[in-house]
Write a structure and sequence with these properties.
The chain is built from 9 helices and no strands. By secondary structure, the protein is mostly helical.
Length: 141
């Protein structure tokens, strides 16, 4: 059965692979989700863990997906994606705030720090305040 999972779950038809896994024994379902995690298919891992009722066995699957996606969103300067990924995941709030400040979104980062009750190190607050002042000054010209 593991061979079938490996053959079918190649990322091209996740919906079909998940339907197949739903009809397999629990042990094979666990293998299915773990295999996705091992191949760094984190969104697919989280989706399968939820669909197969394996959240208890994979409690951090959604967090791992969101954490990796947050890093990617910040790398590409996508503040909307970053905030959306972190909104419902308190463990990512601080990383989101610091990441936003790091990509020049100091005003948004400070606003979220206040909303989420994130205590920033003094150096981060100072850097954010300077960046906000610079942007405000540039906008006046």
């Amino acid at each position: 059965r593991r061979e079938v999972v490996e053959a079918v779950d190649d990322g091209s038809r996740d919906d079909v692979a998940e339907k197949l896994a739903a009809n397999l024994p629990r042990e094979t379902q666990l293998f299915f989700v773990e295999r996705r995690r091992a191949t760094s298919r984190l969104k697919a891992t989280a989706r399968a863990a939820a669909a197969l009722g394996l959240r208890e066995e994979f409690p951090d699957a959604d967090y791992e997906y969101r954490k990796a996606s947050l890093q990617s969103a910040l790398k590409h300067g996508s503040r909307q994606a970053a905030v959306g990924l972190c909104f419902d995941e308190p463990r990512l709030h601080e990383a989101c705030v610091l990441g936003l400040i790091g990509i020049g979104e100091a005003s948004l980062g400070l606003e979220l720090a206040g909303t989420w009750d994130i205590q920033l190190p003094a150096s981060d607050e100072a850097a954010a305040a300077v960046r906000i002042a610079e942007v405000a000054a540039a906008a006046e010209f």
